[in-house]
Design a protein that fits this description.
It is built from 16 helices and two strands. It is globular. Strands 1-2 form a two-stranded antiparallel sheet. By secondary structure, the chain is mainly alpha-helical.
């Protein structure tokens, strides 16, 4: 697209609001699971599985529905998605077992598909030069998790958790009506690119699509996993109460989400890959310190022993998490910018598979956090897992950059030899 369409900013505003509302529903278990753990006496691994249920279904649906959005109106599909999510929220007060919450969580996870519909809807409205900024602003809808972190503790305190589902159902119904009334339809003169569905699957043969998915697995998957994990981590590692834990998690979610819009601007200006590489280095340094468990060492001196204690206190921990959150916000915007640069006509299918892989990080990482914590008995084991994932991402990106540089040098050498041979022939 050469130019931004009329009403594009209204479309972006409504898309961002709708995504925020759906994201708050998708992360609903992040707050409720703390009550569930006490009532159902869950282990760390069981808690991770319960937290991951909505994320799993949302992740797995993103790719097929992303392909569908290439052939059907993303706006219409989005309205149907919200309508299908509302009944699950109304059933929430009727559930009382681990299995019941697990199955209902899978249904609530339909709300996670809103991201795929959103990027497909937004990209049609903006020129190539503004895609990073537009997708960054849209992605700031991640701040919808703040709705849960602010309202849920208050709602649970005053009315009990059984009111949570109906209250969220009412809010999502309001958003559905608002989106139906004010989100503009794509103008009829805009020709959409609709190749055979097999053509939509061809990019999946490209290794770079899977690399982009791995990058998104970290920048979005770990962000989502931390939303789910941080409340209980603050309570466990620093003995905070629920309200305090939610306040610190809210700070992480809000700053990371708002940074996404700025990250999109940086990606437009300096290039998505340059931003992403910088993001990885910042996160690697922070995760190194966060992974280090509280340690006490005894140094045997000549006259007496010296005990040395090393640990990350609450405020240093929060500062490091803040830096990681901001970096992740930049990273989420830059990955989508890279994706659009390479596949501007296939943001539904390619964006869908990348969004799927990223969301799978949000459901697999909490389980890995719980399993690592149960196995090692160390609270910071979760950050050791993230450090390992990031190391893999950086290794893949390093070799990809190196391979591209070698190919460019080879092409330049071949071109140089071609012109030299032509000159010799002319002489």
């Amino acid at each position: 697209m050469n130019a931004t369409l009329p009403h594009a900013w209204r479309a972006l505003t409504m898309a961002t609001l709708a995504f925020a509302a759906n994201f708050s529903v998708w992360t609903l278990y992040a707050v409720l699971a703390i009550d569930f753990q006490d009532k159902l006496d869950l282990t760390g691994t069981e808690l991770g599985i319960l937290l991951s249920a909505p994320i799993l279904s949302g992740a797995l649906l993103r790719f097929p529905l992303g392909i569908l959005s290439e052939y059907q109106s993303a706006r219409t599909l989005w309205l149907w998605q919200m309508a299908l999510t509302i009944p699950a929220l109304l059933l929430l007060p009727l559930i009382g077992s681990f299995q019941g919450f697990l199955w209902l969580g899978l249904w609530i996870g339909v709300s996670g598909v809103s991201f795929t519909f959103g990027i497909r809807y937004v990209t049609d409205w903006f020129s190539r030069e503004q895609q990073g900024l537009a997708l960054g602003i849209f992605g700031a809808g991640n701040a919808g998790a703040a709705i849960s972190l602010i309202l849920l503790p208050l709602l649970v305190y005053w009315q009990g958790w059984s009111w949570t589902g109906p209250a969220y159902a009412a809010g999502l119904l309001f958003m559905l009506l608002l989106f139906a009334g004010f989100a503009p339809r794509l103008p009829a003169y805009v020709q959409s690119y609709q190749p055979p569905w097999r053509e939509q699957l061809k990019p999946l043969r490209h290794s770079q699509v899977w690399r982009f998915g791995l990058y998104y697995y970290f920048v979005f998957g770990s962000f989502l996993a931390l939303i789910l994990w941080l409340p209980q981590y603050y309570m466990q590692a620093y003995q905070l109460d629920l309200q305090q834990a939610m306040a610190f998690t809210l700070f992480f979610v809000t700053t990371s989400s708002m940074a996404r819009a700025l990250g999109g601007w940086f990606a437009d200006r300096y290039g998505g890959r340059a931003v992403n590489w910088s993001v990885f280095w910042v996160c690697l340094v922070c995760l190194f310190f966060l992974s280090y468990p509280p340690t006490t060492m005894t140094i045997h001196g000549l006259e007496r022993d010296v005990e040395l204690t090393i640990e990350i206190n609450l405020w240093l921990f929060t500062a490091l998490i803040f830096v990681i959150g901001v970096a992740q916000g930049f990273g989420r915007a830059s990955v989508l910018k890279i994706t659009h640069d390479h596949y501007p006509q296939q943001m539904g299918s390619v964006g869908g598979i990348i969004a799927t892989i990223g969301a799978l990080g949000g459901c697999t990482l909490p389980i890995a956090f719980g399993a690592a914590q149960d196995a090692l008995g160390i609270a910071s084991a979760s950050f050791m897992v993230l450090y390992a994932v990031l190391a893999l991402c950086m290794t893949m990106m390093f070799f990809a950059i190196r391979s591209e540089q070698v190919q460019k040098q080879l092409q330049a050498a071949l071109a140089s030899n071609f012109f030299e041979d032509n000159d010799d022939a002319n002489h």
